[in-house]
Amino acid sequence: MITLAGIIGSGKSTMSEILSKELGSQAFFEPVDDNPVLPLFYKGNELAAEKRAHGDKDATNPYTYLLQTFFVNRRFRMIKDAKKDANNILDRSIYEDALFMKMNTDMGNATSVEYSTYQELLQNMLDELTYATKVDSKDLMIFIHVSYDTMIKRIKKRGRDYEQIETDPTLPSYYKKLLEYYENWLDWYKNWDKASELIIIDGDKYDFVDSMQDRNYLLDKIENKLVSLGHITEDQAKKLKQNRYSEK
Fold first, then answer.
1. At 208, is the secondary structure helix, strand, or coil?
2. What are the DSSP calls for 102-138, one per residue?
3. pTM of the predicted model, to two decimals?
4. For 28-41, how does the pLDDT look when each residue is reduced to its tens digit (9 = 90+)?
5. Which partner from 27, 118, 185, 216 sits 20 to 30 angstroms from 245, CA to CA?
6. Are 104 and 48 in contact (CB under 8 A)?
7. What is the per-residue pLDDT across 136-178, written as a single tens digit (0 to 9) for each?
8. Which residue among the candidates 34, 58, 91, 106 is catalytic per the annotation?
9. How far apart are CA 219 and CA 221, in angstroms?
10. Could you give the CA distance from residue 22 to residue 223 in angstroms, rounded to a whole number?
11. Measured distance CA(179)–CA(184) in Å, rounded
């Protein structure tokens, strides 16, 4: 399995589409358009901020636990489906779901009881996935690293109203805090004894959306890693490269 990771607006979904087309595999995308909780969550952030401003220091976002449970439940199903065939792709890691729950708890948007319940649920899911996995080869994690400016630029480009900093004045500080959590998360993941190899893409430097040169460079890098992991053969990688570079 190949998993994309990175902050909102980093290009995970776009790279998932590119890779699935390149490898002839299936991409599994984070539920957004069919997520009835996400707009409520953003509204809940505003309501909680208003309550705190009026002296309610313990005000939480009532939709945080619901949103994170929605995400982790969908992710669990997608992981099980993705593992049915080789080189299927997820556009977000289940470990990032835990990052969001931790951050929102630290921010006061969820209670300690909600957080501990979530962690117990997540661990049960991870134990089940570990038990069900029968292969010895490692998965691949691809982390797309971007700055705040690049993130905001891409958020504006895709145009979801509830994600825009012009729509919600609390979002700039939220996004900047999220970047800090992602930096800490990446440091943790690099040193964690895990079942996945890690590739880090500089999303500020490489424009894999509009530059075919950058896209080909990154695909070469990813496919070389897949060869080393035994997920594709050298001949397959060579053929993929030839097909890409022969396209006009």
1. coil
2. HHHHHTTSS-HHHHHHHHHHHHHHHHHHHHH----S-
3. 0.87
4. 987 667 788 888 98
5. 27
6. no
7. 568 899 999 999 999 999 998 888 887 888 888 888 998 999 9
8. 91
9. 5
10. 10
11. 9
Domain ranges of the chain: 2-246
pLDDT tens-digit map of 200-232 = 999 999 999 889 999 999 999 999 999 999 999
Residue-wise pLDDT for 62-94, tens only, equals 999 999 999 999 999 999 999 889 899 999 999
Contacts of 236 (CB under 8 A, 6+ apart): 227
Rounded Cα–Cα distance for residues 46 and 43 (Å) = 5
> And the tokens for 208?
């894999």
Indicate if 91 belongs to the active site. Answer: yes
* Residue for token pair 């439940």: 73
Backbone angles phi, psi at 102, to 5 degrees: -65, -45
CA-based angle 177:179:185, to the nearest 5? 110
Taking each continuous run of H as one helix and of E as one strand, the counts in the chain are 9, 5
**Do residues 95 and 74 make contact, with C-beta atoms less than 8 angstroms apart?**
no
Residue pLDDT, tens place only, 91-146: 999 989 889 999 989 988 899 999 999 999 999 998 888 765 555 568 899 999 99
